[in-house]
């Protein structure tokens, strides 16, 4: 019947999930990553050792306040 809505098209609109904003999509995709402060690791030290498996690493605090990880 001319002028009446196509039932197939209106069904498609009803089935579509609500649209999400880009921000909502990003929040759903970004996993929560634990935060560890360097001061919690280093304490009053300028250098610590970190064992990863059988490897030993050194985490050093530079004079300019940056971190360097040495193997």
Automatic annotation (TrEMBL):
A Pfam family of the record is hemP
- Annotated spans, Disordered: 1-27
Where does this protein have compositionally biased stretches of type Polar residues?
18-27
Q: Where is the composition biased (Basic and acidic residues)?
A: 1-14
Q: Mind telling me which InterPro entries this protein's record contains?
A: Hemin_uptake_protein_HemP (IPR019600)
What is this protein called in UniProt? Hemin uptake protein hemP
């Amino acid at each position: 019947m001319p002028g009446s809505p196509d039932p197939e098209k209106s069904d498609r609109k009803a089935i579509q999930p609500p649209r999400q904003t880009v921000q909502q999509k990003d929040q759903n995709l970004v996993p929560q990553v634990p935060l560890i402060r360097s001061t919690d690791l280093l304490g009053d030290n300028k250098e610590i050792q970190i064992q990863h498996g059988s490897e030993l690493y050194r985490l050093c605090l530079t004079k300019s306040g940056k971190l360097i990880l040495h193997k």
